[in-house]
Amino acid sequence: MEALLEVSNISVSFGGIKPVDQFELHLQAGELVGLIGPNGAGKTTIFNLLTGVYTPSEGYIKLDGKTISNLKSYQIVQQGIARTFQNIRLFKSMSVIENVKVAFNNRLSYTLPDRLFNTPKYKAQEEWLHNEAMELLKIFDLQDDANEISMNLPYGKQRKLEIARALAVNPKLLLLDEPAAGMNPQETVELMNTIKLIRDKFNITILLIEHDMQLVMSICERLVVIEYGKIIAKGTPDEIKHNERVIAAYLGE
Questions:
Q1: Looking at the chain, which runs of residues are DSSP E strands?
Q2: 45-82, pLDDT tens digit by residue?
Q3: Every domain of the chain and the residues it spans
Q4: DSSP character string of 201-240
Q5: Which homologous superfamily does the CATH classification assign to the domain defined by 5-91+165-251?
């Protein structure tokens, strides 16, 4: 069975330093996989390589059998990869629903004249857009905050909004970069349930970076562990939990 995502021995160098060195990964459609390791291990750099922020100096990346290693970030989004960030990147002065609507842009086909003259095509697509955005907000229990300015949301809700916006581009693969960062225990439990829900509801593949081991061990089907840009272990959560090298490098006794 062909992998949805095939990452073959990618590396990248910055001034002689290799934050990612011969990294490889295969994800099947519908998998929920965790990428873990110490701070500075190269996890976010891998996300940047997958999303076109950086170009690999070695190796290649394929999505659905198509090489995407040399595409620009917006082209990779169009191919079906969306992401969130360690530091939340919302349009802070825009409303909650506007943050979601903006991600639907490439799925609308009306023209500027349609908008200027308020044509039936424009009205129909705007109605569709509003309904789709509200449906996404309902999944994250944000529907009552639809008209709130996004920067006024509590931290946990801002995290949820960023994930909702990523889903609005209709991705095949969703990359979540420390989605539980800054959340309290209750918010983390809600997030765990939401991640499982969106994987099942949208039939989406998820690759997750996270330091909250309870979350990672609870929802991920398998884990990839890196240190200094190299893979040191792969396996199920139970296998990783008892891997002596991972314990020494990251988990601790």
A1: 5-14, 17-27, 32-36, 58-63, 66-67, 81-83, 173-177, 205-209, 222-227, 230-235
A2: 999 999 999 999 999 999 999 999 989 999 999 999 99
A3: 5-91+165-251
A4: HHT-EEEEE-S-HHHHHHH-SEEEEEETTEEEEEE-HHHH
A5: P-loop containing nucleotide triphosphate hydrolases (3.40.50.300)
